[in-house]
């Protein structure tokens, strides 16, 4: 992503302000030292009423990578106006009360799924202060981490690294700010083209609305929990995997109780939760209900995600509905032990993996839940005698580890619909598919939301001024591949 307006009016290049070519000369290096000694980045607070250069919606790894890249660019003199001393006017709006990275899934022992080298900085600039290795160094663990002989830190440690990076940007992040809409502001250029957008955010606690104006808006809001239609969306004992660590200890508050828990899904979240419940509640009975017949191992082969995208169906096996091989092996061993100890009738096992099964019904009486599950591929289904194949599971808790949807940015930008091209208007850009393996063109009011190679939303010619725009990160998988969605390549895109 290269929001040009951030460069407009600034010296473009390290030599223009007298700094050495490598951008790591005396002055920036001293700035970097100062930045690290006072725990502040080079991005400075902008008065709320000013027109910003960039407002980023969401402050997860994608936006954090942008923040780090901007800091590094200022540090190297590329984004620093030597005459005025000014830096880009940037703001990050985050709905959570503080920085947290999928905190509801921070389970003991959970490892990262990518090498730490794909951190917030290393692949773009290994000399950045914001590398994972520098984090280890600053926290006195570099040697000890090296002795672990791994590229995969724990998720807990990696979240701490991300929080450490985020702490440098406190001046330019507003937490408790949930963005509800992005609309055209009244600013326009000489040709009448929209040159700024109004971003409206809500304080989730008080409901208070605040507006900001910005030439550029980056939507990096990640995915939103997706729960199957067969389940109620607001039952206190039906939760999504993203709430797991927050809610399960409250709902199941006696570790020795023989709780019955159903986990739905066949991805990494489902497998980790299925495993973790058994550890946390040794007397529990658990069922892993999944549409696929088997847990599929993730593909970590050393091809780039782009190369795999052309080889595999949507590169899904690099990312979705797949599980780390070690965890599959651990779960298989558990199933084997049950077979050895209890015999082959799986209904007698405390822990079952119910492959090729779908949830077709749900009802509840108080805290008692009944799930009806149906085999997907039985011969009986083929002759229509499905009811006899159904099984009713009585459980205390249902955990839907059923992934995330990535469409809510469309609702957020509804008010810019009139600036989008008509469906028939070709503009050379690529349709944005939102999320999902089934490619479908994202639309607002029947107008296609098309995204350029550089992630900018394509507006009708002349509607939006050069140097202004809306940018999408993490919701263009169908067109831009899977990498921008996860962190493995987030950084190199900025
Ligand atoms: C449990 C889990 C573990 C993962 N582990 C890995 C891994 O090891 N390696 C890997 O490559 N990928 C992993 N991923 C994939 C994950 O998508 C990326 O790691 C990464 O989080 C994507 O960053 P993001 O900033 O695009 O989205 P997110 O991390 O989802 O961040 C989006 C941010 O936007 C905020 N937000 C949302 N809506 C609004 C709004 N309306 N207003 C303001 N703020 C808003 C959210 O609160 C959040 O902080 C994992 C995903 C999960 C769920
Ligand atoms: N330790 C870690 O680093 C860690 C931990 C957890 C997650 N993650 C990452 O986070 C991302 C999301 O993982 P995830 O496991 O939460 O989601 P996911 O990979 O998208 O998997 C979702 C699962 O839910 C199933 N599902 C979806 N809708 C369903 C429905 N209506 N009924 C039944 N099943 C349904 C899917 O099955 P179908 O295939 O049948 O649709 C799939 O098995 C991935 O990138 C993953 O690698 C990482």
From TrEMBL:
Keyword Cytoplasm applies: no
Xref: SUPFAM superfamilies: FAD/NAD(P)-binding domain
Catalytic activity: L-ornithine + NADPH + O2 = N(5)-hydroxy-L-ornithine + NADP(+) + H2O; L-ornithine + NADH + O2 = N(5)-hydroxy-L-ornithine + NAD(+) + H2O
Pathway: Siderophore biosynthesis
Cofactors: FAD
Region feature (Disordered): 1-24
GO BP term, pick one: intracellular iron ion homeostasis
Entry keyword Flavoprotein: yes
Keyword vocabulary terms for this entry: FAD, Flavoprotein, NADP, Oxidoreductase
EC number(s) on file: 1.14.13.196
GO function terms (MF aspect): oxidoreductase activity
Gene3D superfamilies, sorted: FAD/NAD(P)-binding domain
Pfam families, sorted: Lys_Orn_oxgnase (PF13434)
Matching PANTHER family: L-ORNITHINE N(5)-MONOOXYGENASE (PTHR42802:SF1), MONOOXYGENASE (PTHR42802)
Family: Belongs to the lysine N(6)-hydroxylase/L-ornithine N(5)-oxygenase family.
Protein name in the entry: L-ornithine N(5)-monooxygenase [NAD(P)H]
């Amino acid at each position: 992503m290269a929001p040009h307006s951030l460069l407009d009016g600034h010296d473009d290049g390290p030599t223009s302000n007298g700094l050495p070519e490598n951008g790591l000369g005396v002055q920036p290096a001293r700035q970097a030292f100062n930045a690290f000694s006072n725990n502040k980045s080079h991005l400075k607070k902008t008065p709320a009423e000013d027109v910003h250069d960039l407002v980023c919606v969401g402050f997860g790894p994608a936006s954090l990578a942008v923040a780090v890249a901007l800091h590094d660019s200022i540090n190297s003199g590329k984004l620093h106006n030597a005459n005025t001393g000014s830096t880009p006017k940037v703001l990050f709006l985050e709905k959570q009360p503080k920085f947290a990275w999928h905190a509801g899934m921070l389970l003991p022992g959970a490892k990262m799924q990518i090498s730490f080298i794909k951190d917030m900085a290393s692949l773009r600039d290994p000399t950045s202060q914001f590398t994972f290795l520098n984090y280890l160094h600053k926290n006195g663990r570099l040697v000890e981490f090296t002795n672990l002989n791994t590229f995969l830190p724990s998720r807990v440690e990696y979240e701490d690294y991300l929080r450490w990076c985020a702490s440098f940007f406190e001046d330019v992040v507003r937490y408790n700010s949930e963005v509800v809409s992005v609309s055209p502001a009244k600013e326009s250029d000489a040709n009448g083209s929209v040159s700024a957008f109004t971003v409206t955010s809500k304080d989730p606690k008080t409901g208070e609305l605040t507006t900001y104006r910005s030439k550029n808006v980056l939507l990096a809001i990640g995915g939103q929990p997706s729960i199957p239609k067969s389940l109620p969306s607001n039952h206190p004992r039906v939760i999504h995997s993203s709430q797991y660590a927050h809610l399960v200890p409250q709902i199941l508050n006696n570790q020795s109780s023989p709780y019955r828990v159903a986990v739905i899904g066949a991805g990494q979240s489902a497998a980790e939760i299925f495993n973790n419940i058994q550890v946390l509640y040794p007397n529990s009975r658990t069922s892993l209900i999944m549409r696929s017949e088997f847990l599929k191992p993730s593909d970590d082969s050393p091809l780039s995600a782009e190369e795999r995208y052309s080889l595999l169906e949507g590169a899904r096996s690099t990312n979705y509905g797949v599980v780390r091989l070690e965890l599959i092996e651990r779960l298989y061993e558990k199933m084997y032990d049950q077979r050895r100890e209890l015999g082959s009738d799986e209904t007698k096992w405390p822990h079952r993996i119910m492959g090729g099964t779908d949830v077709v019904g749900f009802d509840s009486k108080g805290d008692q839940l009944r799930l009806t599950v149906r085999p997907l591929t039985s011969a009986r289904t083929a002759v229509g005698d499905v009811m006899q194949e159904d099984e009713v599971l009585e459980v205390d808790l249902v955990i839907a580890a059923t992934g995330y949807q990535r469409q809510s940015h469309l609702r957020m930008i509804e008010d810019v619909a009139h600036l989008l091209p008509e469906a028939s208007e070709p503009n050379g850009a690529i349709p944005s598919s939102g999320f999902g393996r089934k490619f479908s063109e994202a639309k607002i009011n029947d107008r296609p939301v098309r995204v350029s190679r550089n992630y900018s939303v394509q507006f009708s010619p002349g509607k939006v001024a050069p140097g202004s725009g809306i940018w999408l990160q993490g919701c263009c998988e169908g067109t831009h591949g899977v990498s921008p969605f996860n962190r493995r390549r987030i950084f190199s895109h900025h």
